[in-house]
Write a structure and sequence with these properties.
With about 240 residues, the protein is an alpha+beta fold. Helix content is about 25%, strand content about 25%. The longest helix has 15 residues.
């Protein structure tokens, strides 16, 4: 059997797997309807244009970056894959003007352009908007304007990377950006075991577990970690707030 034939058969197998109700013994049979199952197919955005709304940067504003973990099954943090849903890790960037109190937020994440192919090889990636998306855990860091400028730069730079389920997925994109900030306590990078033949890779389940550990072991990050039914700001946050001033 040739390599190309094996690849075709593997892709067909993965398509079949995506219809299985759950790929781990701990998952409930009912699909999680409050998380990524509700999210429509992500459309690509130009990350450079998308982030231009934050400029110019100045000292009359507060800045922050938030790492968000959206579990495939919000009732079971150990379930890494459920009915075609692997969950998601994404970022929320925020700028609050100290003079007007106007807030600008952008929520976005890293995706494969071709989903099935991304399970077996590296593929071109895309950045897509994650506004108004529910998630289960987060960690936030306040930033100076210089640090925020650095994060904006890293978001664009790492968006050029190719997507691979095991080697570089949404989890890796977000953790690489966050941990690139100089002088911080780095977040753990944990690879979890995927079902069946998928091997190991980054997952919101691993991030959730690490945030739980950090929050309960006296880490300096503990005050900035949240758990619960959380939601990223709506896409028109900036326009709505500005209209009120």
């Amino acid at each position: 059997m040739t390599a190309s034939t094996k690849n075709i058969l593997l892709k067909a197998f993965l398509v079949i797997l995506s219809g299985i109700p759950a790929l781990c013994g701990n998952c409930n049979s009912k699909k999680d309807s409050t998380h990524s199952a509700q999210v429509k197919k992500a459309q690509p955005i130009n990350i450079g244009d998308y982030l231009q709304v934050f400029y110019p940067l100045d000292n009359n504003a507060e800045y922050s970056v938030t790492v968000c973990a959206d579990l495939p099954d919000n009732s079971n943090p150990k379930c890494v894959y459920k009915k075609g849903e692997p969950g998601h890790v994404f970022l929320i960037l925020s700028k609050r003007n100290l003079l007007s109190a106007a807030v600008i937020t952008k929520s976005f994440g890293f995706y494969p352009r071709v989903l099935v192919s991304a399970l077996v090889k590296q593929v071109k990636s895309k950045i897509s908007d994650n506004s108004n998306r529910e998630f289960d855990a987060s960690i936030e860091k306040k930033l100076t304007n210089d640090e925020f400028a650095f994060v904006l730069q890293e978001c664009e730079e790492f968006a050029k990377k190719k997507y691979n389920l095991k080697k570089y997925n949404c989890y890796d994109y977000v953790l690489e950006i966050f941990n690139s900030l100089p002088g911080i306590e780095k977040l753990p990078v944990t690879k979890v075991k995927f079902p069946f033949i998928f091997g190991k890779g980054g997952s919101p389940c691993g991030l959730y577990r690490d945030l739980k550990n950090l929050s309960s072991t006296g880490s300096s990050w503990a005050p900035y970690i949240k758990f619960g039914i959380l939601k990223s700001p709506p896409r028109d946050t900036f326009q709505n707030l500005i209209a009120n001033f």
